[in-house]
Amino acid sequence: MMIADGHAPNPAPQTQRLVLIVDDSRAQRRTLAVQMTRAGYQVAEAANSREAMRLCLERRPDIVISDWMIPGHSGLEFCRRFRAMQSDRYGYFILLTSRNDKKDIAEGLRAGADEFLTKPVSGAELLARLAASERILRMEEKLRSANTRLTAALTKLRETQTAIERDLREAQRLQQGLVRECHGSFGDFDLSLLMRPAGHVGGDLVGFFPINAGRVGLFALDVAGHGVASALLCARLAALLSGTNHQNVAIRASDSGGCDPKPPVEVMRLLNSLMLDELRIESYFTMIYADLNLWTGHLRLVQAGHPHPMVQRADGRIESIGQGGLPIGVFSQADYEELQVTLAPGDRLFIYSDGLTECENARGDPLGEEGLHAILRTNATLHGDALLESICWSAAHYSSGQRSDDISAVLVERRSEGASCS
């Protein structure tokens, strides 16, 4: 093989790259080797494909310049094998040939060659192609380095995510512990609670607490937003509403040394003041708080932005009560209106969060209050946990199992005359 005279600018590789020259002619290899050495490359030589493959495995050349015809295998087959052994880095392959048929060029490209040079090759053309190979190799190295950094970052991210998941599972367990009792029986009344966070932790909270022998307080609240911040506020509110009588903001000491309920309106005002004046956080919550008289079935109730409670009478009639009201933690001068309702034997009160009525079907239609009315009528014979589970199942069926918000509920049932506590 002849190299025509000529000079070209040195491609000046950033690192001294290794070029493997594969040709059965020692004179031709030496001619190319001199050109490569002058250009600043390291050079290795092989006279056949077997020796070339050994050098590729041992020294991993950056650039291969191979004749089309070499002993052992053709240059095309050698190119295919060279490509097959590359996994973590790229090698540039230049195929030298005296052929100039377009079909031959296409065959060489399919075999994995990057460049074709027709013999005799001028030194200027060869060095110009090597300069082009430098750009490709530098780009590949930058991408490989970026991928290495990205892989390390993803590994770190997965480790962090695993730790977060572990912490969230523990937070979920702790949040579930905020609801110490999911059921309670007081005189003729049965109370049942439901909490279904959309994620690990949620912003809904429900609960009840005895005030004295004849009164029970019950509440449902929904902190705006989701996740850890909402769950932390829930934890703070749980401590205020379900602690001992001396800690519970809804209870005051009576003159006789016992405990009396604070009026629901006073409880709401106190919580609103706490949010705005003491906590001072960028959040708010909706809430319903009720004081239940166990002897008369009379409920004093305040609605603060929470969905309208539903009363289902013993004959199946359903009433939505309340005027809405303002959420807690928004306006310093917010006023709250007390509602009063009496549960007769066989009646029940259902308090729920908007995660239930905002469940959407495939068309994007929310379940709404009418849908919830229909579910309550359909399940009129169920009570306690069975009713709450059936409501959740019906909502999940309506939304095809898709849910983006927490669901919580308080169910207060007054047993019928002669019915026993189950």
From TrEMBL:
Domain (Response regulatory): residue spans on this chain: 18-134
Taxonomic superkingdom: Bacteria
Modified residues (4-aspartylphosphate): D67
Hydrolase keyword on record: yes
Entries under SUPFAM superfamilies matching the protein: CheY-like (SSF52172), PP2C-like (SSF81606)
GO molecular function terms listed in the Swiss-Prot or TrEMBL record: phosphatase activity
Keywords: Hydrolase, Phosphoprotein
This protein's record includes keyword Hydrolase: yes
Gene Ontology terms: biological process: phosphorelay signal transduction system
Protein name stated in the entry: Fused response regulator/phosphatase
Organism this protein belongs to: Paracoccus kondratievae
